[in-house]
Design a protein that fits this description.
By secondary structure, the chain is an alpha/beta fold. 42% of the residues lie in helices and 28% in strands. The chain starts with a helix and ends with a strand.
């Protein structure tokens, strides 16, 4: 009985360690800023399960930028078998520009959409089969 219990515990530990194995990396995705027609890069922090992923989740940080909350959330998704990417689509702006021009918020949405499209195109190019995408943020 004791041997069976030890075997079951050992097997459960092995399965959970295999299920939670994730690779982490950072990269940038180059694109052209659609609002200023200038080169720009989206920062991407990726968490990929070592086994075949069940889908892809794009995680958007709050306006304050990427925090430990978003990283832990992405790690947890990865441990569940989902590929998770934390995107930084915020571009630094001049404080003077922020005060004078309230349409800067419209430009940030257009820029974020262009960033998401560029990231999805990059992720699609890396695969042989089309993944399912989800967006959280």
């Amino acid at each position: 009985m004791k041997n069976k219990l030890l075997f079951a515990l050992g097997f459960a530990a092995l399965v959970s360690s295999v299920a939670s194995a994730c690779d982490s990396s950072t990269s940038t995705v180059p694109l052209v800023d659609p609002t200023k027609a200038e080169p720009w890069e989206v920062d991407l922090r990726s968490y990929r399960p070592q086994r075949l992923s069940r889908g892809v989740v794009l995680v958007f940080p709050s306006i304050a930028g990427e925090t430990v909350l978003e990283r832990r959330f992405a790690q947890r998704l990865c441990r569940q078998g989902l590929e998770a990417h934390v995107l930084n689509v915020v571009r630094e702006t001049n404080p003077e520009e922020e005060r004078r021009d309230l349409s800067i918020h419209d430009a940030s949405y257009v820029r974020a959409l262009a960033g998401v499209r560029a990231v999805i195109a990059k992720l699609d190019a890396e695969r042989t089969q089309a993944p399912r995408f989800a967006i959280v943020g």
